[in-house]
Design a protein that fits this description.
The protein is α+β, with helices and mostly antiparallel strands and 380 residues long. Strands 1-2-3-4 form a four-stranded mixed β-sheet. Helix 2 packs antiparallel against helix 3, helix 2 packs across helix 5 and helix 3 runs antiparallel to helix 5. The two termini are 32 Å apart.
């Protein structure tokens, strides 16, 4: 998502981004409103007015979605939970909450806040219809926004995790059982069942000839099923890594190359010869920077013979690092947010090891074999 994200600014300190997929749905909504919905509901307008009102509707729809996500975010911040970003994309929007709610009560209020905002917007647009009646384009806008915001409320309150209704349901189960993982599994299972129902309905619509609506409904079902499965898996992973530190999963098997190493020689000996993909540039346990295939690929083949690794490395002060005593789950989240596969483990300016996604997977396999995480040694 980060690579296809257009930053729009910040609200309440939260970065707001626009995914490139948004432009597709913006064009589809504008086209649909300008050529079908508004001509049928408000005949007699000029073609340009239909298109202008259609575009305004698409923009205001996503303003409504943004306000919905800000509702979640504001309550999350009230519970001292960071919000990494809000992204608008083809399915609407998502607020990336930077941690699990501290309690079922917090989960309930964070989840319900978005639908409450949409309901307020729907009621506001409904009350604006009488004064807007003298100007038909304005009336058309507030009528549609009242309808679509109320639809957002109904759709999001479907008890299918990870929709808002599914999160409300998870909060209720969590409060009743006192077990977040069990609540997530139950809510996620129901969410996947509802997602499969969407897919079935979508396929049925396609079979009976309603191809466009059927394809969209099936696509939403597929998205919900994938999201529910990912949330359950994420919660399971969180439970398994809880209480473990970076030092337990890091490896001390990493390649160190002197700063004057010739790039062409490095390619032949280490990348092509031994399949290595990441290198620490420095002397012994005193790192200067990090070199990956991404940096190497930026150098033309003809220039590699005359290029040293310290000329293209990422300096250590620009490399994201972790401490050995850092929580392993938090370190994994940092890797996901930054889109990296490995992090140097640094303490007092010295390199102690490398934490990689493969190393975390290997550590998880070890946990499952031993089944007694507390008995494991301090490093693997």
């Amino acid at each position: 998502m980060k690579q296809s994200n257009i930053p729009l600014g910040r609200i309440l300190g939260i970065p707001i981004g626009l995914d490139f997929s948004w432009f597709l749905i913006f064009a589809l909504i504008t086209w649909s409103m300008a050529t079908s919905y508004y001509p049928a509901a408000f005949p007699g307008w000029s073609t340009s007015l239909y298109w202008l009102t259609g575009a305004a509707t698409a923009v205001l729809l996503f303003v409504s979605v943004l306000l919905h996500e800000l509702g979640h975010s504001v309550i999350a911040l009230r519970f001292k939970i960071p919000v990494n970003r809000i992204t608008l994309f083809i399915f609407g929007g998502v607020a990336e909450i930077g941690g699990e709610p501290p309690s079922a009560w917090a989960e309930f209020w964070i989840a319900i806040a978005g639908p409450v905002v949409s309901l307020v917007l729907a009621l506001l647009c409904y009350l604006l219809q009488p004064p807007a009646a003298t100007l038909s384009p304005l009336l058309a806008l507030v009528q549609y926004l009242a309808y679509i915001n109320f639809s957002l409320v109904l759709f999001n309150l479907i008890p299918g995790f990870p929709l808002d209704g599914g999160r409300v349901f998870r909060a209720i189960v969590w409060g009743a059982t006192g077990n977040l993982q069990r609540a997530t599994v139950i809510a996620g299972t129901i969410g996947r069942v509802i997602a499969y129902l969407f897919i079935i309905v979508g396929i049925w619509q396609i079979v009976v000839g309603n191809f466009a609506n059927g394809l969209w409904i099936a696509f939403i079902g597929w998205f919900l099923e994938s999201a529910a499965a990912a949330e359950v898996q994420r919660q399971s992973l969180h439970e398994q890594l809880a209480g473990h530190t970076v030092a337990q999963a890091m490896t001390q098997e990493y390649a160190i190359v002197p700063p004057q190493t010739n790039l062409q020689q490095l390619m032949e000996d280490e990348v092509l010869g031994h399949g290595k993909r990441c290198f620490v540039v420095g002397h012994g346990d005193l790192p200067m920077g990090l070199l990956t295939l991404h940096q190497i690929s930026k150098v033309a083949a003809a220039d590699r013979m005359h290029t040293q690794v310290d000329q293209i490395m990422l300096p250590l002060d620009k490399v994201k690092t972790v401490a050995p005593n850092e929580d392993l789950w938090e370190a994994l989240k940092e890797m996901e947010e930054d889109g990296v596969n490995q992090l140097p483990v640094i303490a007092n300016g010295r390199l102690l090891g490398m934490l990689s996604r493969d190393g975390i997977i290997s550590f998880l396999r070890t946990l499952r074999v031993f089944r007694t995480p507390g008995a494991l040694p301090g490093s693997v």
